[in-house]
Amino acid sequence: MRLTKPLLAEFIGTFALIFIGAGAVTVLGPNQIAGIALAHGLVIMAFAYAYGKDSGSYINPALIVAAVIAGEHSLLDAIPVILVQLLGGVAGAESLLLIYGPAAPHHLGATMIDLHRTSLMGGFMLEAIGTFFLANTVLNSALRGTAGALAPLAIGMTVTVCILAFGPITGGSVNPARTFGPAVATGNYSEVGLYVAAQLLGAAVSGLLYRLVWNRSGKAAPLTKETPNLAAADA
Fold it and tell me: pTM above the 0.85 mark?
């Protein structure tokens, strides 16, 4: 099947993001923000280089939504990729649950808004704006090719700076799979809808902006190894 390799790449990449990213929160504690930010950013960069040529290594459903709205990918290809990313996120979080047990510290890295520092609307805005920044980086540095072989670094560092900027407030998820996986493992879905709505909004705005301003191709690409990828060698 045309999507076999991309789907496997997206599952493994998303599994790794949650296993390492949420795992870092579990082991280090939410106050170790620099280590947590680097754990997320570096794993994204590593798997973008590893699997960029196979799937684009999005490992984030919001980024797939942004790419579809931007006109870079078709909705038909996007649906199974999003499902696999969510499954990878759940598998990563459930693996952490098996390793550390139901009494694991720091809620297995589950993302929750710190209502002592902001409101639900404030958390919504942080996640929406952060996801907009991330989708903007992916669409331009990778798909449009402005960063060439450095696109994975740009994308990984965008996640890192988002976590550094507001990780203590929302966890800096900017990724529905990052939010959904630990929520399933802990059984706490209280803010999942808010997070996902914010992330999809930020991604949609970024995708629309790209489509109207920067995208000149006018043709959606399939998610195959020929797809513009996060580790493209040329700008």
Answer: yes
